[in-house]
C-alpha cells in the first residue's frame, strides 16, 4: 500500500566496537480507510524485540514477552490500556485536523508517532527522541537540546507554536527522555537479558530468478539485529551494483536481511563472487560463494516470495512507520546518563 513502510531497524557496524547500544521505542500508528488493519496500533520494542502491543480491535495492552511482566508493577497493564485508549481518540482527531491542513477529505491517511530512548552500555551516553509523521512524511519532532519543536513543513507550524507554548510539558518530556525512559530501558534489558543478549547464527541462501537477473543473498534467523550482508569480488570488498535491503523482524524474534548484486554473466564467469554475513557478537563470518552459471545450487527465486515475506513481517510486527527521507533536524539529542513510571504516554494533539 502506498505510503506504508515496514518498520526499519537500526544497523550498527560490526567488528569495530564491543559496546552495545540498547533501545526502548514505542510506535503509535493511526489510520483511516485502510482495509483489514486496525485504526490504531501501539507497539513497544526493546532492542528491536516487541514487548507490548495494543490495537483498537482488542482494546487491551498485552505483553509480548514473558520477562516484561517482571519489570512491570501490578497496575502496569491497566494503566497502559487506559493511556492507549486516550491516545487512540487523540490520534483519530489528529487525522481529521491534519487532513484539513492539507485540504484533504477521504482516502487512506496515516498519522504516526515514534518516541523512546537509547543507551550505550559502555560509554553511558544516552539519547531521546519523539517524532511524528503524516502520510509517509516527517511532520514535527521534539528537540531535546532546545526543548522546542521542529516543523519541517508549513502545515506543522501551527502545531509547533501550540506545543512550544507549553513549556512545562516540554520540560516534562525532557525529563522523561533523559531519566525515566533510560531507567526503564535498563530495567527491561536486565530482565530480558536471556533473550536480548543472546546470539543466534544466520541461515544464508542465494536466490536468482534468471541467469541474467540480479542475485539475492538472504540471511535469516539471526540475532541480534546488528548485521552486515555484503559482497566480495575476488576476495575484495565489492560495492558496485549492490543494493542493500532493510533488516526486518521474523515472527520468532530473530531477524532477516537481504543484499542484491547485479552482475553480468561474463563477470560472473571471470571472477569469484561471494556473499559475506557478519552478525554482531558472533566471531564467525558466514559465506556463500556464487557458483558458476552452469552450477545448480543457486535457488531460483519464486515470483512473489519476497512480497509474501514482507506481508508476514507486517502481520507479526503490527505497525507501520514512515521512511525518513531526510534526517536533518531529527537527530536524537545526546544527554548524559544521570523507580519511575513508564506507562504509555499520552500523545499530543496536533
TrEMBL record:
Span of the secretion signal?
A: 1-19
Residues annotated as domain Ig-like: 202-278
- What biological-process terms (Gene Ontology) are attached? immune response
For the region Disordered, give the residue spans.
Answer: 330-350
Alphabetized Pfam families for the sequence? C1-set, MHC_I
GO cellular component annotations of the record? external side of plasma membrane; extracellular space
Family recorded in the similarity comment: Belongs to the MHC class I family.
This chain belongs to which protein, by name?
Class I histocompatibility antigen, F10 alpha chain
